[in-house]
Amino acid sequence: MTTPVDPSRTALMVMDFQPVIIANVPDAATLLAKTAGAIAQARSAGAKIVYVRVAFTAQDYAAVSPRNKTFAALSGGGYLADESPESGIHPDLAPEDGDIVVTKNRVGAFSTTKLAHILNAHDVDTLILTGIATSGVVLSTLRDAADHDYRLLVLADCCADSDPEVHRVLLEKVFPRQADIVDTAALPAIFGR
């Protein structure tokens, strides 16, 4: 059983839930519904909601090194261009006033953003991670957040990956070394309700 968190010092991280990314995962409708429910519970408990999206300006594309295997291929095609519909947050999970939105142009939520400073300014010490893909943004953010000494929880039913076996191995064998793995059914107890 995971011990409760202090909602006022907790952020629910909603990462890479963008239409073009969601289209690549199985059972997207269930994933969106579970994540929308998690957002509602976190908001109701008084936790911060932090959206992380990947998008590129012309300057961001120009800064991508040809050595970057993941992003070099994207830099010429305008994929996930900032302000394009594909780079927005899925409308089923739309941010509300007071939510935090961070834009990155690499895999991890901390890598090209001021996320650590933002969380510090809000006195956040606990992160609840959701996202697509488990092997991408969730893995990279979890590792970096652990190095920043955050308490970490991963909502297993609010994460997805195009490779089910990689998803399973990360949730069952890798992530538990640094995070509590829970699902949305545990949120009321986690938020002390």
Please describe the topology of this protein:
Blueprint: E1 10-15, H1 19-22, H2 28-45, E2 48-54, H3 58-62, E3 100-104, H4 115-121, E4 126-132, H5 134-147, E5 151-160, H6 164-174, E6 180-182, H7 187-190
Parallel strand pairs: 1-2, 1-4, 2-3, 4-5, 5-6
* Total helical segments: 7
**Secondary-structure element series:** EHHEHEHEHEHEH
Overall structural domain count: 1
Beta-strand percentage? 15-25%
CATH topology: Rossmann fold
Q: What does this protein look like?
A:
The protein is of the alpha/beta class and 193 residues long. The chain has one domain: 3-Layer(aba) Sandwich (Rossmann fold), CATH 3.40.50.850. Helix content is 33%, strand content 20%. It is built from 7 helices and 6 strands. A 6-stranded parallel beta sheet has the order 3-2-1-4-5-6, with helices on both faces. The radius of gyration is 16 Å and the shape is globular. 36% of the residues are buried. The model has no long low-confidence stretch (mean pLDDT 92).
